[in-house]
Amino acid sequence: MQKVSLFAALVGGLLMCSTPLLAQSTTTTAPAVVPAATAPAAQPAPQDDPNEMICKSGEPILGSRFPGPRVCRTRKEWDQIRRDSQDALYHQQMNRAGPGGP
């Protein structure tokens, strides 16, 4: 019986502690808008630079938990690799034999 009352007191205490968290206001303020006149002009966004070097961790080595060696390429090269992979997958799916095929 003592364990039940201790458990009930513990649950009640947790509920009382969480009540102020639930009662807090969840309103957020909108981020300030920077007028276009004060924003820096004529600077390309870093994501638009095709010559930016991007390094990614390699594929994990089979039988190991460690990632493979890092591979560094330009944004343009990574985009070309992505497009080539998508094209290869598309052609593989379209050339697949249907239900009545060999």
Please give a structural write-up:
The chain is α+β, with helices and mostly antiparallel strands. It has helices at 2-23, 75-94; strands at 53-58, 68-74. Strands 1-2 form a two-stranded antiparallel ribbon.
Largest sheet, strands/sense/barrel: 2 strands, antiparallel
Structural class by sheet pairing and helices: alpha+beta
The H/E string reads: HEEH
Give the proportion of residues in helices: 40-55%
Characteristics:
2 helices, two-stranded antiparallel sheet, alpha+beta, 102 residues
Report a brief summary of the structure.
The protein has helices spanning 2-23, 75-94, and strands spanning 53-58, 68-74.
Q: What is the topological layout?
A:
Layout lengths: L1 H22 L29 E6 L9 E7 H20 L8
Antiparallel strand pairs: 1-2
